[in-house]
């Protein structure tokens, strides 16, 4: 399962009371699932699984690294990675069985952990900034930006090195795993994703505190209020998911320890980055991480890069002319990695909830994959960096986003005065609109509130283009008509249709990326030009 695909709907709907019999139309199958033994979380993390995840992660890291250093555009490969993980382990166990060698049964939980680990590994390949903010620090990009350009001060560069790159990634990549752990139950089981941004964050904080209070009063696990209306399968998933709780002290202590390491290590690597820059970034991480996780679940698009760009402008302006470029690029990567990883982990927990996988094994798999990626990605990058002319705007390995990010940092050094006229006023107005729209959705009657647009969904087409909006509109129209014609069948079949479309599109990305890696171009190309 694709971690993003599982959260694409943005909201988790509970089964209505009258629809419960439809959800349990196969009592024998439901009983079989209920009787299925769920292995302990330590048995879900296996040595063969980690080896398979490493091999898949290396292959996909090479693919995404090549794409990020050429076009700069990396598609989502999660579906094909999940399929490859399943085929690899299923083939391995089947081959051993044919040879008469006894081996551990292959379970859905092991497959989920392997998928999570492999995706976490290759995500560092494009999320680590090797084709954007990290490469924007090197001397070649510094010279391409113009050595006499105001703000691009002499010496504001740092050439790539395996040592400091590994250290930087290790310092920033693990904290995001702990950012949203205290909210994971609310995110998955209470189904409160009905707001947007900071409004949504504050609302979930309040409901989480209320849930903790109710749990202490009742002395039992936190569940949705109308538990009797939930299908048996959902009750089993909730029970298994809550069984292996991650202690709160582990979350808070780990976050504090890893943050302290980053506060000390990053200023030692980059003298332009002050320690309090890192502290501010880590204090904002939970809020920004939640906003990004909500947007990713709603739109199936991880917007971590956009949060990083905002941080780039803010910290570049704060650091001033002499230190702004390097400070902006480094803090951009710091904030981006925090919100990117936390959103991915929330979707991994949703996958765990659906497949009866322990959240502890998922956290271990994500951490193991991140550790693999912090080693594999810099080594892979240097294979390309030493073998090819990376960063040459006239060559094949253009790495276009490295120059773009550096120029954004140079622009950010000038502060808010560099922004277009009335830009800040428009930002404030649309921020207020987002809050008011969410208030309207919450307090209007449901028959009226459902027509209020979601600001997060409205914002995405401005960033990625109109094609996304057209796709969403067509899909929404089909769903609306299907519900209008036959609501009961639509409720059962729409998830299956959506899964088929997502998997088909995702699986094709892998052979498409291999063709691009081999520099094979399509036999013909069609484009539209304006009429004379």
UniProtKB/TrEMBL annotation:
<dbReference type="GO" id="GO:0016020">
    <property type="term" value="C:membrane"/>
</dbReference>
<feature type="transmembrane region" description="Helical">
    <location>
        <begin position="491"/>
        <end position="517"/>
    </location>
</feature>
<feature type="transmembrane region" description="Helical">
    <location>
        <begin position="460"/>
        <end position="485"/>
    </location>
</feature>
<feature type="transmembrane region" description="Helical">
    <location>
        <begin position="324"/>
        <end position="343"/>
    </location>
</feature>
<protein>
    <submittedName>
        <fullName>Uncharacterized protein</fullName>
    </submittedName>
</protein>
<feature type="compositionally biased region" description="Basic and acidic residues">
    <location>
        <begin position="1"/>
        <end position="20"/>
    </location>
</feature>
<feature type="transmembrane region" description="Helical">
    <location>
        <begin position="246"/>
        <end position="268"/>
    </location>
</feature>
<dbReference type="Pfam" id="PF03169">
    <property type="entry name" value="OPT"/>
</dbReference>
<keyword id="KW-0813">Transport</keyword>
<dbReference type="InterPro" id="IPR045035">
    <property type="entry name" value="YSL-like"/>
</dbReference>
<comment type="similarity">
    <text>Belongs to the YSL (TC 2.A.67.2) family.</text>
</comment>
<feature type="transmembrane region" description="Helical">
    <location>
        <begin position="113"/>
        <end position="135"/>
    </location>
</feature>
<feature type="transmembrane region" description="Helical">
    <location>
        <begin position="45"/>
        <end position="67"/>
    </location>
</feature>
<feature type="region of interest" description="Disordered">
    <location>
        <begin position="1"/>
        <end position="35"/>
    </location>
</feature>
<feature type="transmembrane region" description="Helical">
    <location>
        <begin position="275"/>
        <end position="295"/>
    </location>
</feature>
<keyword id="KW-0812">Transmembrane</keyword>
<keyword id="KW-0472">Membrane</keyword>
<dbReference type="GO" id="GO:0035673">
    <property type="term" value="F:oligopeptide transmembrane transporter activity"/>
</dbReference>
<keyword id="KW-1133">Transmembrane helix</keyword>
<feature type="transmembrane region" description="Helical">
    <location>
        <begin position="73"/>
        <end position="92"/>
    </location>
</feature>
<feature type="transmembrane region" description="Helical">
    <location>
        <begin position="188"/>
        <end position="209"/>
    </location>
</feature>
<dbReference type="InterPro" id="IPR004813">
    <property type="entry name" value="OPT"/>
</dbReference>
<feature type="transmembrane region" description="Helical">
    <location>
        <begin position="363"/>
        <end position="385"/>
    </location>
</feature>
<feature type="transmembrane region" description="Helical">
    <location>
        <begin position="162"/>
        <end position="181"/>
    </location>
</feature>
<feature type="transmembrane region" description="Helical">
    <location>
        <begin position="418"/>
        <end position="439"/>
    </location>
</feature>
